[in-house]
Amino acid sequence: MPSTYRLLLVGYFGIGAAIVAWNIAAASRILQSRRKLSISILATGFGALLLIPGLLVAISDASLVYGRAIQPLAWLWPTVTVLFVIQAAAALSRGRVSAILGVPILTYDVLVAMVAICRHLNAIGIVPPYFSLVLSAAQSDALGVVAGSAALSRATWLLVPMFAPALPSRSRLRVAVRHVLVLGISIASALVLIELPGASETISSYSRYTDEALTARSGSDFQFGLKIFPDLRSAPPGVSITNDFQLADSLGIQVLSIVVDPEAARGKALDSLSHSLDDVRDDSTVLIVTLGYPRGARESFNQSSSAYVTQRVADVNRLARALKPNIIVPAYEPYGEGARELGTVSPEFWIDFISRAAAIAHHVNPNIRVAVSAASFGSRDSVVYTWAASRGSPVDVLGFSLMPGFDGATSLDTHMHIAQRWLRATAQPKPHWIFAAGGYPVAHGEASQLLALRGVLAWATSQPSVHGVIFTDAGDYDAQRGLRAPDGRLRPAFSEFQRAIAAERESGTQ
Q: Positive or negative, the Cα torsion across 118, 120, 123, 124?
């Protein structure tokens, strides 16, 4: 029996595909009606013509891999959404569609257009109006029911506008389709509107970090790092090698973090990755390697968990030998990314897997430090953390992923308080790192990314056992949360990170 999640997923993509098909069919009927040329007809024609290209641009221009080439067309998607608003407004105002259908469609199209315009302004470095940011956050919250946290950072999760049916229909099937689609978009609009009060609190929540300051640390006691490259399933894209190393050099940091999925942990992909790191590896560079999850991870795990573990331990072996990392994280956020990819499994499973992976890594090179990162801060994460923090465990380094949630800085604050409680409960804490820090500049605005980073840096530098912070990510690749936007522009968080590094180094020399 399909799970609720799968039903929601099928419903989301099914409604989206049906709206696209409806738009094309409705536009064809309207344009064939041979009415005189009008703004409504023009909006219908161009909207239908540009819908599919607009969708492709909206998804593709969110990545640095394609962003430079597609950026000149970034205006296309917000323009398409505005054309749909014009068509729906004209059809309703001229009485060509009943209010029971026209009002929900126009409301939905206006919401979609406002979010599209807001995010386009964000993308080109213009601060959008506060209300549109709230609407952007509300849409992410609504889509989070289906997409989870990916709705905060992935361009694939969006809403498709809908044409109003400007012609009557005698077909019962068409009438039924109209009402089903209007019901679907009405639910989507309602979910977005319901989230508005919470979204407003989300955008405002980041202001609590406005006056936060770093705590001075002595010498090289605290380090700053950068997650480079997308999560790798193949060799690193050339644009990421050029941009990310240049960005690390400009910041003057010598801690690099990468996530390698199993597909890239073997063969030519691993050889290419190893070669791309040759020029940056030296005695002062700290390389942190995290093993991710393969495509179809849950299916493979459900078929045979023992075979899955054996394969992942073999991946750890290859990564340790080929990349010679200083720190290896064999389980990418067991109750964060791990729960999304494998489902929620028992702490005992993760303890056993991490122990086996640590034994292999230490056998390959005793100087490799094995790390574990907490992300959900729930009871299961607590069990794994407590085991890893004990003196008898094979784990050398512990850490946290400290990213905002759908409620912005509220959950981030909660997680930092929990992390502090865990730290205080350990008599002699092992070295800790913040393996992920940053924010969601598209969903919550670029100022939120800067303030979230400031808040995490202030907390991390105040904890003596925390030795470093990794900003995620260097650029927008498979997620929109980088220091570098798809058009190559550096977001304001870059200057914040740069200032923090300079301030900490200056304090360390005094």
A: negative
Distance CA 338, CA 373 (A): 11
CA separation for the pair 11, 269 (Å, rounded): 36
Q: How many CB atoms within 10 Å of residue 365?
A: 14
Q: What span, in angstroms and rounded, lies between the C-alpha atoms of 226 and 436?
A: 9
**Predicted pLDDT at 427:** 81
Residue 401 carries which side chain, given as an amino acid letter?
S
Helices (runs of H) and strands (runs of E) counted in the chain? 19, 8
CA distances from 91 to 88, 165, 293, 412 (A): 5, 8, 49, 45
Q: Hey, how many other C-beta atoms are within 10 angstroms of the C-beta on 285?
A: 14
- Supply the pLDDT for residue 1: 37
Task: Give the domains, in start order, of the chain with CATH numbers.
Answer: 4-194 (no CATH), 216-508 (3.20.20.80)
User: What tokens were used for 259?
Assistant: 């996530």
Cα-to-chain-centroid distance, residue 378: 21
DSSP 260-314: E-GGGSSHHHHHHHHHHTTTT-STT-EEEEEE---TTHHHHHHH-HHHHHHHHHH
Sign of CA dihedral 25, 26, 32, 33: positive
Mean pLDDT in order along the chain per 10 residues (510 residues): 69 92 91 76 93 93 82 92 96 92 97 97 92 96 92 93 85 87 95 97 97 84 95 94 95 95 96 90 87 96 96 98 97 95 96 98 97 97 97 96 97 97 90 97 96 98 95 94 93 96 78
DSSP states along 96-147: SS-HHHHHHHHHHHHHHHHHHHHHHHHHTTPPPPHHHHHHHHHHHHHHHHHH
pLDDT of residue 254: 87
What are the tokens at 491? 């977001």
- Measure the CA–CA gap between 284 and 176, rounded to whole angstroms: 67
Residue 364 makes CB contacts below 8 A (sequence gap 6+) with 317, 320, 321
CA distances from 197 to 4, 98, 100, 138, 176 (A): 26, 30, 26, 9, 34
Q: How far is CA 277 from CA 225, 248, 258, 274, 368, in A?
A: 15, 13, 11, 5, 17
Q: Determine the 3-state secondary structure of 153 from DSSP.
A: coil
pLDDT, position 2: 45
Q: What pTM, to 2 d.p., does this model score?
A: 0.93
Task: Give the contacts of 224 (CB within 8 A, at least 6 positions apart).
Answer: 251, 253, 255, 468, 469, 471, 497, 500, 501, 504
Q: How far apart are CA 288 and CA 486, in angstroms?
A: 25
Give, as one character, the DSSP assignment of residue 65.
H
Residues 503, 209, 287, 386: what is their CA dihedral angle, to the nearest 10 degrees? 130
* 3-state class (DSSP) for residue 68: helix
Angle at 12 between CA 150 and CA 69, to 5 degrees: 55
